[in-house]
Protein 1
Amino acid sequence: MFSSVSRADDSVLGRWWWSVDRTTLLLVCLLIVIGLFMSITASPAVTQHTSKGMFTFVQKHILFLPLSIGLLLSISVMNVRSVRLLAFFAMAVSLGLLVAVLLVGTELNGSRRWIDFGLFTLQPTELAKPAFAVVSAWLLSRQRSHPETRGALVAFGLYAGIMVLLLLQTDLSQSGLLTTIFFAQLFLLGVSLWWFVVLIPAGLGVAGLAYLTVPYVYQRVNGFFWGGADDKYQVVQSISAFRNGNWFGRGPGEGIQKVALPDAHTDFILAVVGEEFGLFACLVVVCIMLIIIMRGVFRASYARSLFILLAIGGLLTQFGTQAFINMSSTLGMMIPTGMTLPFISYGGSSLIGMGLTVGFLLALSRRGAWENDNRH
């Protein structure tokens, strides 16, 4: 289809094709295909623990995939100004939904993070993360170019507001991820390291307070470090899956540990990959994600806009940290947090959020993106 697009083609499609990072787009498509295949092989086993039909999760995954892909592609065509406007709109909607979660949200596993719309449930945090990365990048860059706007102060206020809403949901994992995004942007902005000397202990203090005052957090932490077999059940099954898979796996659909993993299609999807396709396949997934991050860093290094540099930095931090947390939890290195593996884990909210994330990333990393940005 695109092989016939000439470099001289000045249409929207032509300009997009020759400016977008086609390598990253191809690698993301590969992750989407892997995710679809793993949903088909892992989800039927999970439904044995529920009253749902065998292919319920597969059907929902397939339902959300076109929405995620469509969102990704449509955003990647946008200019910088349109990306900013969409991010502000998504941020406003996300804030409203985060408040709504506290009022009408569905509680699951001790946390209230989802809104039930009947046909599907939505986790607003998945939309808030990429929107915050872009909005905070713009606010921080405005502080540098127009100090009178107090952009940094507004960015801190927005960060604090979202953090309060997440902590009220007892969602420490997403709070930590949001903090990592914001700190990465502050580091790229070049703020004094003394700020981190103050902010990092403050963040650890909040985590410690949550441990002492929130029973759900107290139980999860104690269970991970000092609990018995029941507390570490999923992690033990996950490690067993990797051992069963060895280097090249047992074969497609031949995994047995996924039957014992209630979250085999979400939090522990990598364990299913490891058992059925082996450590080699897991390393392929890791390499794909690392290349996506490295491509983003390479593109950002050429940006002549502080806003674009900070936005890409925040989006890459979100993508990479989320993948790292999921993989670490699967390997028993961290407390399982419900963090999904980008584009591979089942989850409509995660797919939509990742579509938004990569769409922003592709749009802002296009060659010459800053040339259409009259505020760089």
Protein 2
Amino acid sequence: MEYIKIRFGGNIGQLECDLEKSINDVFQTLSPIFRLSERSWRPAMDIYETPSEIVIMSELSGVDKKDLDIEINSRAVKIHGIRRPLPRVERMTYRLAEIQYGRFERILFLPAPIDPEKATASFVNGLLNIRLERISRERVCKVPISDE
């Protein structure tokens, strides 16, 4: 199986994000209730391609379909939404709190142009599956020449 490497720009933003995550993780180990700020989480995703399509799969357990949005153009896909926290039980004490809640957003730049009009998406058992039809690079269009 061949993996697609996707780059999201320079490393400065990533370093800032990694530093914030490291600091937040240190304080969260002291107490799961103490957080620096409410920040977005990043759902796990797989992307693979065949000769005719690009497929994106995302693990979004606990996200309600009505809280999920997908935007597509010929070169990128934006997936964003919110996972709402479960109701709290009175007088409970957390011993472990790893499930992340809140807003999320992922922008994925595609390795080949696609036809956004032919995109399909399904959401079953917490897995989002987006299928994107590639635009054939071998397509030839004949252009008429005018006298003007």
Protein 3
Amino acid sequence: MGVAFPITEPIIKQLFQYHPTDLQKNVFGLHFTNPVGLGAGFDKNALYLNELDALGFGFVEIGTVTPKAQAGNDQPRLFRLPHDKALINRMGFNNNGAAVVKENLAKWNDSKNKHATSKMIVGGNIGKNKITPNELAWQDYNICFNELFDEVDYFVVNVSSPNTPGLRALQEKDALKKILSELQNNNAGKLNPKPLLLKIAPDLTDEQLDDIVSLAFEIQLSGIVATNTTIDRSMLSTHSIQQSEAIGMGGLSGKPVSKRSAEVLSYLAKHTENKIPLIASGGIFTGEDAADRLKNGAALVQVWTGFVYEGPAIVKNICTYLSRL
């Protein structure tokens, strides 16, 4: 899959892979060689799993995948705010569609099984097409779920991206209950049901978070990913605020979202009484960042903007720090 590098691959693995036994853990029935994952939005079409595995990720989320291919929003749509170690993106679920992504995943799984080269967990992050009305969104999520079911280890329902018009309205209790109920009923009919998780925005109120917690228990979700990008720009420095105003719409990620993402994580851990596994995402750059999230209720952590700024050694650096604690 992706760009092959057979000569340098062993060297890259030697440089960047680090899977100390003390960091291995089982979460929602899956075995993770380390707790550091790559969030959705980086490998949208499951093209670079071999390369990401070589960099040592314990798990990778592909997608967000929609039933039909879509081009996403107009370019440019990804912007750096280096002064604050942040990104603004308005990608808009650009991907090649569920059928093509399934083919890519099948090739990866075939190679992995044939050569027994990887234990990296792969999650499928699923969404709806832009043209699908919200009242029919549950159908899109079910299409993606069925298409990718045999090829991914777990699923994440993405209703929290700010870059698809109206999508975040699906986080409201009734709309969300419809989507998750349909998926879980579908899941229950499978021979071996897959873990089903929900990814939420950092901009939710406590009341909305309480609804999420209630639904998570009612629907028996396997976990929650906290959090996606934010539409709040108030935590940016003056320099970056000026930049962001020129950039316009989009979700903010990186260091500025760290505090709020950590607050949401702690709130969820407290109100779920640590009975539902949580994946921390948002502003994780260092081993200290990861350790703080794990201490405050996360079972696993995900990087994205940190990967962009810190580079390919981020997983090894985080795992080395965690292993020394």
